[in-house]
Amino acid sequence: MTPKPNVGAAIGEMSFPSLSGQTVSIGQTKDRWTMVFVYRGKHCPRCKRFLNKLNAVLGAWTEQMDIVVVSGDTKEKAEADMAEFGWDFDLCYGMSVDQMRALGLYVSEPLSEAETTDLFAEPGAFGIRPDGTLMLVDISNGPAARPDLEELLDGMIFNITNNRPVRGTA
Question: Does residue 60 contact residue 28 with C-beta atoms inside 8 Å?
């Protein structure tokens, strides 16, 4: 099993290609907080429902912080998802297994080629402070457990506004 990420510590810079043609980086100093949502990939219908919900409340999120959505999928799979769903957020792809493990994500093998052909990350959400340190971690070992986006945003606004300390370090 992959060890838990160290909240309160720098996560280390990671970069992902995106469908906009930009390289999206996390873990470096920025002006704003960042929330990273990792999804399982094109093969996961629960991921699509979650990302559709994120898209519906995206404006409230982007008022507060930058949003990064990433999977280990290929560019072609990410393009197919974007063509089907037309999300308003940029979609990143190509997350490596090493990056998945560095974030403490559970990594799964496909059950069959009908699911997918490569190792993939199970869902995760990561709140990153502007200084590149990890403030909040929500990871799951399967597709059914996801954070409530409105509750998570409310909590993140509270954390940002009150400069709350990192929890879960004892």
Answer: no
Beta-bridged to residue 14, according to DSSP, are 26
- The number of C-alpha atoms within 13 Å of 72 and in the hemisphere containing its C-beta is 24
Whether the model pTM is above 0.70 = yes
- Tell me how far apart the alpha carbons of residues 126 and 103 are, in angstroms, rounded to a whole number: 9
Residue with tokens 């409530």: 148
* Residue pair 88/20 in contact by the 8 Å Cβ criterion: no
Judge whether 50 and 19 are in contact, CB under 8 Å.
no
- Asked if 10 contacts 133 with a C-beta cutoff of 8 angstroms, the reply is yes
Distance separating alpha carbons of residues 79 and 87, to the nearest angstrom: 11
pLDDT of residue 1: 59
Q: Which residues of the chain have pLDDT under 70?
A: 1-2, 114-115
Please answer whether residues 93 and 73 qualify as being in contact, where contact means their C-beta atoms are separated by less than 8 angstroms: yes
- Residue 169 pLDDT: 80
Q: CB neighbours (10 Å) of residue 60?
A: 13
